[in-house]
Amino acid sequence: MTVQDGTAKNVGGRLLGGVRSPQDVKRMSGEEVDLLAAEIRDFLVAKVSRTGGHLGPNLGVVELTLAMHRVFDSPRDRFLFDTGHQAYVHKMVTGRQEGFDRLRQRGGLSGYPSQAESEHDLIENSHASTALSYADGLAKAYALRGEARSVVALVGDGALTGGMCWEALNNIAAARNPLIIVVNDNGRSYSPTIGGLADHLSSLRLNPGYEKVLDTVKEALGSTPLVGKPMYEVLHAVKKGIKDAVAPQAMFEDLGIKYVGPVDGHDVAAVEGALRAAKNFGGPVIVHAVTRKGYGYRPAEEDEADCLHGPSSAFDVETGKLLAAPSVKWTHVFADELVAIADERPDVVGITAAMAEPTGIASLARKYPQRVYDVGIAEQHAATSAAGLALGGLHPVVAVYATFLNRAFDQVLLDVAMHRLPVTFVLDRAGITGPDGPSHYGIWDMSVFGAVPGLRIAAPRDAATLREELREAVAVDDGPTIIRFPTGAVAADLPALRRVGPVDVLAESARTDVLLVAVGAFGQLGMEVAARVAEQGYGVTVVDPRWVRPVPAELVTLAAGHRLVVTVEDGVRTGGVGDAVAKALRDAQVGVPLRDLGVPAAWHPHGSRAQLLTDLGLTAQDVARDVTGWISQLDGGTVEPVRLSTNGGRTTS
Asked: Which of 407, 454, 399, 453 has the alpha carbon at shortest distance from 429?
């Protein structure tokens, strides 16, 4: 049975239940493998419908993954997934089916390959366009060590829009080591794949005469009498000429990389044949497999936006719709405000890196399609292209996930900031995001980009401040800006009591014991901490700096009027906002002690955001306990509870 009709049946079927290692798949007949593929799709839909996860990509690679495990011998032969979110079927084949009940949850399976889970997983980095570089180095290492082991990289065609892939291909061709690159060509990354290479692959997919022409030539070669080497060479040249006329494989073969395909990526036998030929070739080979993202599950196939790429939570199996009630997301607020700004300013344009829907840029594209540029999975190019747009008199808004802008640090530093260009980078999924794990945590941005001269960084605390700070950012005309916000639903608006320069004062009391600097979405946490600390007799002033880099002078002035400064941020402590405020206090010769709370610079496991913040001691209870302990060390006497003033109609005594 399949899930084509939108239902998940036969979950954990007879064949799938017997698969504990790749050897079990190798022993199956062709008919059994086809049935196994159907059972796997049922299993995927049933499990991911309960936990959320990357559904569409994995539905599309079922047969590819089975064929890979039937032809090669993992873990001796190494599989590299680019990106890692298409490794669910690989996990099932390598004995991890039971873990799917807690997929992407605390203590359960990671949504990406994980060395801690299995010897069959090698690389954990889930950022796109890296696998070919890993593969190049790995193949060189095996060659140098004299080890006869295959290296197989399964690369989504969207990943081939990234520059690293082409740098790697150049070196792979030069090294001539045995290495198989399986291009999973579904015409999409998250959304339809963008760029010249994508157009080449599309032309190949859409050319119905391709295989027919090749078959005709093959038959002609096979039936021609042996009339000597010259005739053979002529026929071979004709064959190659026809192939070059209808397909882009010449692009790869000119690099020195053998090309095989296209093959039907949902035909296990066809893929196996191509992989065996590639394995026996003895050099670098590209196997071009054409697949459909979301294949076999009607709601995914009919989802035009992203083929149910990654449902964030549980969904209805019949319809593919999320079960949770819709809420206003940070991304939605940004998208709406950007369109409103674009209505007023024709110079504002949008850029994204293959993530128009997830980052909200798609809203701008729907209204102003000529003013949005999706550059593919190429964050470095996005940043420098934005610099060019700014040089041309426009104000680009570059929307990416916070973790992905790390890849373009040099471009932001030297191509944008050094030229003092007005480019706004909007970082979605900033801070601890939860289920996707350490490669997706946007905890580095305030530390990494805080070192860039002339770059301003804003961290809104709610929808109102996101709208306000986005407008302030696009009004800056003498340098770059960053707006960063977390994932998920936006908290209720938190009005300020008053504003001191750019700094919002959220709460204050008659006593000025502690200045609590609550960065961005931690504004509400700061309010809860102040109320708890007030119960112990200490007065807390809660401020939101709004613009955290550079540190506002007004924040230093406020700090000078308190006995202790505490910063709390959803980013790494090393080089973060706390470090920046401490330096600003030192430079101004303000001797008030400072304590900084944030995320340790480490690889934190996947789990819910709430679980991780609890582990990190970034809850109201934990922070209040820390603050009370620190200020009590400065005050040996007993103090009475104080009243806390806020703009939310609440007072605590």
From this structure: 399
Residue 14 in contact with residue 43, Cβ under 8 Å? no
CA 476 – CA 472 distance, rounded (Å): 7
**pLDDT digits over 252-290, tens only?**
777 778 888 888 999 999 999 999 999 999 899 999 998
The model's pLDDT over 463-475, given as tens digits with 9 standing for 90+, comes to: 999 999 999 999 9
For residues 63 and 52, give the distance between their C-alpha atoms in angstroms, rounded to a whole number: 22
Catalytic one of 96, 407, 456, 511: 407
Is 167 among the residues known to form the active site?
Answer: no
Give the neighbor-by-neighbor strand order of the sheet with 258-264: 78-82, 151-156, 179-185, 284-290, 258-264
Within 8 A by CB and 6+ apart from 292, the residues are 60, 186, 266, 301
Q: Is 26 a catalytic residue?
A: no
SS3 content of the chain, % helix, strand, coil (to 5): 45, 15, 40
Show Cβ contacts of residue 97 under 8 Å, excluding neighbours closer than 6 positions.
12, 16, 19, 43
325-334 burial string, b = 16+ CB within 10 Å, else e?
eeeebbbbbb
Q: Which long-range contacts (CB under 8 A, 24 or more apart) does 385-392 make?
A: 385/351, 386/351, 386/416, 386/421, 386/423, 387/411, 387/415, 387/416, 387/419, 387/421, 387/423, 389/349, 389/351, 389/423, 390/416, 390/421, 390/422, 390/423, 391/419, 391/421
Contact criterion met (CB below 8 Å) for 112 and 124: yes
To the query of whether residue 379 is one of the catalytic residues in this protein, the response is yes
- One DSSP character per residue, 558-595 reads HHHTSSEEEEEEEEESTTSHHHHHHHHHHHTT----EE
Whether the Cβ atoms of residue 293 and residue 85 lie closer than 8 Å to each other: no
Catalytic residue among 39, 379, 469, 508: 379
Between CA 14 and CA 26 the distance in angstroms is 16
**Both tokens assigned to 514:** 């502690």
Whole-structure pTM value = 0.82
- Residues 600, 601, 605, 606: is their CA dihedral positive or negative? positive
CA–CA separation, 157 and 618 (whole Å): 40
Q: Among 188, 293, 484, 532, which one carries the catalytic annotation?
A: 293
**What is the tens place of the pLDDT at every residue in 402-459?**
999 999 999 999 999 999 999 999 999 999 987 888 888 899 999 999 999 999 999 9
Q: What would the two tokens of residue 415 be?
A: 């191509």
